[in-house]
Each structure stands twice: as C-alpha cells, then as structure tokens.
C-alpha cells in the first residue's frame, strides 16, 4: 500500500473510531451499572414533531439547601454559574432520594453525577438547590402519550436508571 492509500484509510477510520468511542461509556453503564429508581414530577409529554415521549422531572432535582455541603454553597456564591456536583443517594421506600450534595466524588455508596444550577426558594418558601442529571426525555410507544401524560400529572411514574461511577442512563419508566 502506498503512502496516499494509507492516509486515506486513516482518514476514514478516525471518524468511525471517534463514534464508536462515544458509545463505550453508555454501553458500559447499561451492562455493569447499578439500578436506581427515582420519583418523577408532573410535566406535559407531547410533541408533534418527535412523537410520543415523556419529559421527566425528578424530585431528586430539587434538593433542600440543608443537604448541600458548605463548599458547594461557597463556590456558588463566589463564581455562580453551573458546575459539576456529586449527589449521594439513599433508598427509602423503594425510591432513591438525595442525602448529600458535594464537590468531591464519593469513595463508596450510591451516587449520581449532576450539574447544580442555582439555589432559590420553592412555592413553600424553602431554599432548594436545583440540579440537572441529563435524564429528561423518554420515548414511549406510539399512541400511549396521553396515558403517560395522565399518569405523570398524578405523579405515578417511577424512572429506572442504571448508574456507574455517577454516570446515569435512563432505562425504563414504570407506573405505580
């Protein structure tokens, strides 16, 4: 093979290898991750262009300020903006809930990796830290969106996720 042919093969292989590399972390998480169940909050799940899907919000996205470590609060006050945090989770009544938000990666226990946005007051006047996990949309079978919307408005949907080293993938939704 001459030099030009080798360069052409290399140029074709690099994009393919990059795309395959993007699949490694999600596949590893699906195969080896621990299952967690999160309680969802009501949201409207319909979209004309994307078909039937459920937009999910989680109770674990709104964490009481008292569960946020002082180092996280200090960083929010000094720098503002969004940054990565680790959320230690504990299973209570079959659903995983946050017990601590920290900047340092936990050595043990179940935890999620998220992005803290800000702290504000909720409808009841309690200070809440708003955290994003990147688990927003879940596509459902055609013509079942209305059924899922009804269940969502009643708070009857539980989300099953797989987690490896804080990285989470939404695998399934179930109705209570």
Given helix and strand content, the structural type is alpha+beta
> In total, how many beta strands?
12
Estimated radius of gyration = 20 Å
Rough shape?
Answer: globular
As residue ranges, the low-confidence spans are: none
Q: How many helical stretches?
A: 3
Question: What average pLDDT do the residues reach?
Answer: 84
Secondary structure: helix percent: 25-40%
What kind of sheet is the major sheet?
5 strands, antiparallel
Walk across the major sheet and give the strand order. 5-9-8-6-7
Give the SSE string.
HEEEEEHEEEEEHEE
Strand content: 35-45%
Termini separation (Å)?
62 Å
Give a brief outline of the structure.
With 176 residues, the chain is α+β, with helices and mostly antiparallel strands.
Give a verbal description of the structure:
- It is built from three helices and twelve strands.
- A five-stranded antiparallel β-sheet has the order 5-9-8-6-7, with helices on one face. A four-stranded antiparallel β-sheet has the order 4-1-11-12. A three-stranded antiparallel β-sheet has the order 2-3-10, with helices on one face.
- The termini are far apart.
- The model has no long low-confidence stretch (mean pLDDT 84).
- It is globular and about 70 Å long.
- It has 176 residues and is α+β, with helices and mostly antiparallel strands.
- 28% of the residues lie in helices and 43% in strands.
């Amino acid at each position: 093979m001459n030099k030009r042919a080798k360069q052409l093969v290399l140029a074709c292989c690099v994009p393919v290898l990059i795309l395959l590399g993007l699949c490694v972390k999600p596949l590893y998480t699906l195969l080896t991750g621990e299952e967690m169940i999160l309680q969802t909050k009501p949201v409207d799940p319909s979209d004309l262009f994307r078909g039937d899907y459920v937009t999910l919000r989680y109770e674990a996205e709104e964490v009481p300020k008292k569960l946020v470590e002082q180092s996280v609060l200090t960083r929010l006050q000094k720098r503002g903006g969004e940054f990565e945090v680790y959320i230690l989770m504990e299973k209570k009544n079959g659903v995983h809930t946050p017990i601590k938000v920290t900047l340092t990666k936990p050595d043990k226990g179940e935890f999620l990796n998220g992005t803290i946005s800000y702290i504000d007051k909720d409808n009841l006047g309690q200070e809440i830290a708003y955290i994003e996990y990147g688990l927003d949309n879940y596509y459902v079978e055609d013509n079942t969106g209305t059924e899922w919307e009804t269940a969502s408005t009643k708070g009857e949907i539980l989300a099953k996720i797989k987690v490896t080293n804080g990285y989470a993938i939404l695998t399934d939704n179930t109705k209570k």
